[in-house]
Design goal:
The protein is mainly alpha-helical and about 110 residues long. Helix content is about 80%, strand content about 0%. Helix 1 packs across helix 4.
Amino acid sequence: MASVLKRLARTIESRKGADIKKSYTAKLFSRGPEKCAEKFGEEAVEAIIACVKGDTQNLKEEAADVLFHMLIMLQSRDVTLEDVYEELKRREGKSGIVEKQERKEKP
């Protein structure tokens, strides 16, 4: 499963600077991180609506869009999927309450 995300992340990274007439991803990158974040937000809202409505097929489709656009948003700020994995590993095995408190205590 993770290998699909890794391949997708590599493909998205390779689209930086590509021809915007041939690549939707390149077009988003060309519009800047703000637009990439906005598109991610739109897709997240669509996934939420599908969930609330109980439309599981649409939820699967929108969740795929969310992951895709999240990777674009991350790449727009040079944050890699590996960076996110490292953060998840750092949090692994910790209570969410403890982890959140540790972040608040950082200077």
